[in-house]
Write a structure and sequence with these properties.
six-stranded antiparallel beta sheet, two-stranded antiparallel ribbon
């Protein structure tokens, strides 16, 4: 099934390319950081790297739909990776509105398991 055949894309609301918020996605005992491309009722369409070399150097990115309940908005500074193309002023303003801050002791794997 291609994206054009998936009915979720018809009503999807989108963020601007350099203004995509970061989220922490949880699924079972697995957690990873992603950017939200868009959303519809009950789901978010995310983009995330499967291999992180350092904060701004990532391998190819994957996309997928996840339930909104599995994604928590986080600050750009709290993400283990960041896009170099981000609108820094937009993220700074948005991040001030977020109360969540990642635990500094949490260690993330460099590869997303199961992907």
């Amino acid at each position: 099934m291609t994206n054009t055949q998936d009915p979720r894309f018809e009503g999807m609301r989108r963020y601007e390319p350099n203004r995509r918020p970061y989220v922490e996605v949880r699924g079972g005992d697995r957690r990873f950081h992603a950017q939200v491309i868009g959303w519809n009722q009950g789901e978010v369409f995310i983009e995330y790297p499967t291999r992180i070399l350092n904060r701004v150097t990532t391998g190819q990115r994957e996309v997928k739909w996840v339930p909104t309940a599995a994604a928590t908005r986080i600050r750009r500074a709290d993400s283990i990776w960041a896009s170099t193309e981000d609108d820094h002023a937009w993220h700074a303003a948005e991040d001030q509105r977020i109360e969540y801050r990642a635990d500094p002791w949490t260690v993330y794997s460099q590869e997303v398991p199961g992907e």
